[in-house]
Design a protein that fits this description.
Layout lengths: L6 H7 L5 H22 L1 H11 L2 H20 L2 E3 L11 E4 L7 E11 L4 E12 L11 E5 L4 H11 L1 H5 L3 H13 L1
Antiparallel strand pairs: 1-3, 2-3, 3-4, 4-5
InterPro entries: DUF6022 (IPR046064)
Length: about 180
């Protein structure tokens, strides 16, 4: 990856552990690998999509973020949930009325093992299609300094009105199940 082989080296060259620098590194990795990982695993992902629908996107994200999660550990960082984040508290909305360009925001709080101190939160934007297995554009990450769930929700609600108006996945899914049984 560019001139840096690891997140550890990238952070060493930037003199301190900063959540914004970690986000830069992850974005560079994603830009270089999002399509490669999708193409390389397309048969496996298509099989998962045929069997479980949208859960195939979770498989894709696990494959994409596998190296990043290892890099975090190697750089002395740990996350409260593996990147890209916790599906159950994530939020999703559509950018089109036909469900071909959905956006889900997930997040993970990072802690420095050296100082046992929370350094902030990595937020991942995942774009996907509900009508077929397709990723309309690459995932993106950004960072915020907030590290409590209440503060994270507040910050993200300020950044995006769509986020603010959407509901947590587990709430939305429970309503979906209730309505589908009626």
């Amino acid at each position: 990856m560019s001139q840096y082989d690891s997140l550890h080296d990238y952070l060493q060259d930037n003199s301190n552990v900063d959540i914004h620098i970690v986000a830069e590194y992850i974005n560079t990795y994603i830009e270089q690998n999002w399509q490669v990982v999708f193409n390389k695993n397309q048969d496996q992902l298509m099989n998962a999509y045929k069997q479980a629908g949208d859960m195939a996107y979770g498989s894709y994200l696990n494959l994409l973020f596998l190296s990043i999660n290892k890099e975090l550990k190697g750089a002395g960082l740990q996350s409260d949930t593996r990147l890209p984040g916790n599906l159950h508290i994530s939020r999703e909305w559509g950018n089109t009325e036909d469900y071909t360009d959905q956006e889900r925001w997930m997040w993970s709080i990072l802690t420095s093992n050296n100082e046992n101190k929370k350094i902030g939160t990595i937020v991942t934007k995942v774009y996907h299609d509900h009508t077929q297995l397709r990723i309309p554009r690459p995932p993106q990450v950004f960072s915020i300094l907030e590290s409590s769930q209440e503060d994270i929700i507040g910050a993200l609600s300020t950044i995006s009105n769509s986020f603010k108006q959407s509901r947590e996945f587990q709430v939305e899914y429970a309503d979906y199940l209730k309505n589908s049984q009626s």
